[in-house]
Amino acid sequence: MIKREIQILLRERLRELGFDRKPEALPVEEPSSDDYGDFASSIALELASEFEGSSRDLAERITEGLEEELFKKVTVAGPGFINFDLTLEFLVKSLARLLSSSDPLKEARDSNRGRVQIEFVSSNPTGPLTVGHCRQAVLGDILASLYRKIGYNVDTEYYFNDEGRQMDILARTLWARYKQALGEAVDIPEDVYKGEYLKDIGKDIASEYGERYTEWNDAAASFFKEKGMNQMIERIKDDLSLLGVEFDGWFRESKLHREGEVEEVLTNLEEKDGTYEKDGALWLKAEEEGAPRDVVLLKSNGDPTYLLPDVAYHLDKYDRGYDRAIVLLGADHQRHVENMKAALSKLGLPDDFYQVLINQFVSLSSEGEVKRMSTREGEFVTLKSLVEDLGKDVVRYFMAARKPESHLEFDYDLAKEESMDNPVYYLQYAHTRIASIFRKTEGVGIEEDFQFEDVDLTKLDKYEEVELIKKLDKFSEIVEISASNYGPHHLVSYGENLASLFHGFYNKYKVLTDDEELSRARLGLCKGVQMVLRELLNILGVSAPVSM
């Protein structure tokens, strides 16, 4: 990366002046205005307190010893900002490196980053996945792709609660739908799941088992709980498959209870003086570990709270050898995260092991109205219906477009548009345009699959061409930022900017011209854009069409 090369040059010059800094710690950014050069650094201001003189004096000293052949000019502005204007020869080396490799992320990949597990969706199997689950499914899947691309060993996992009251409600509801399918008049209680999806499952059970379970007893409760859960899990898997999401593992809460892992957590916490009894309940000393207040682990009736098995689950993850466990949770889980961190800290796990991305809710708008959704009431737009209506590409792109911590209003009308106003089509059309250009090369005497090693890329001296080269060079950094900040939206924003730059270049200049050397150089630029767009769309799980 160009930025990295400038950081290395700065590091070498700073060492000559007696400062020892790692290259990645040196501030080098693209300035807000072209008036301040291609890149700028505020390092002199940061080091001024360690220098006998002003920050501007230090900036002048730094610039005196830099390799001038790489820069058209290096200037000092204001109190000590260092501005770099790069030579075209220096810039095009970045494009040459990209074209010589089949991997746009080669510079970002490090196979020694470690093992990461990413858990997401993890919705209880009591109903179909909704648009809210859809957002988390997309975000988690893209994060997994990002981490794999930069060298992590990644496993994805879906955790579901097959214990507790919600599963009992599901079983009772499904039994009532089964009885209705047998022709009996059954009143549906107010606190059950009312979606039509359970009617279909009830009909299937009635057809297969007849009147075997007409009486509600322990056998019926166990049967309908297991049957309902398995049916819903299969439907969840099918829905996720439509979205292009597949998990490496599926984990049941019951395993934690059955194998004694929940009890083991209690024992470990008690041995570390992490619990106490109060009002008949067992409490975690969470406040000692930075949480706002202590929290109940075991209720007075002996039942565990939601927190206890989740602590056991993450201890299980740690025992499986993961260096980090990333979890995507809804906006209503903030207090739970604080309690989890307190419990895991009390158990002695590393502070950076448990990492959480809180994603806000999704609302669906159409014709200016926002649709109300409730799983319990059976009033929601399902993931399946959304993908079947709009297509996987559009749904994934729109779900990733905004910062996860921000509420997402999914514009259904815009998503349905097949025009350049739809950002998905805008991005894909840039890739399609480039494919079309290469299909036309033989018409001007250039073979479609020609090599770029001997192309004179310094022909790319127009402002728009230089801006494209700089944008392509930034791709690896954006991927790193997207992964470390748990923010796929950075990737979306970058892609739209790259597509905009390309469309602007394409509309202003001919790629295939009477000047063969210029044509080959511009084809090289187009190839670079195509490579990066294809990789970006691949990470997002969106197709990169060659025709539209």
Quick tags:
20 helices; 548 residues; alpha/beta; 3-stranded antiparallel β-sheet; 14 strands
Report on the biggest sheet: 5 strands, parallel
Could you say which overall geometry the principal axes of the C-alpha atoms support? globular
Radius of gyration from CA coordinates = 29 Å
User: Which regions have little confidence, pLDDT < 50, spanning 5+ residues?
Assistant: 374-378
How many β-strands, per DSSP?
14
Distance from first to last alpha carbon: 33 Å
- The averaged pLDDT comes out at 92
Structural class: alpha/beta
- Number of H/I helices: 20
- Give the % helix: 40-55%
Question: What is the strand content?
Answer: 5-15%
| Major β-sheet strand ordering | 6-5-4-10-11
Secondary structure layout plus pairing:
Blueprint: H1 2-16, E1 39-41, H2 43-47, H3 55-64, E2 71-77, E3 81-86, H4 88-100, E4 115-119, H5 131-149, E5 153-160, H6 165-181, H7 197-209, H8 218-242, E6 249-252, H9 253-258, H10 261-271, E7 275-278, E8 281-284, E9 295-298, H11 307-319, E10 324-330, H12 334-346, E11 354-359, E12 362-366, E13 369-371, H13 383-390, H14 392-400, E14 408-411, H15 412-416, H16 423-439, H17 463-473, H18 475-484, H19 488-508, H20 516-540
Parallel strand pairs: 4-5, 4-10, 5-6, 10-11, 12-14
Antiparallel strand pairs: 1-3, 2-3, 7-8, 8-9, 12-13
Helix pairs in contact: 4-17, 5-14, 6-7, 6-8, 10-11, 11-12, 13-14, 16-19, 16-20, 17-19, 17-20, 18-19, 19-20
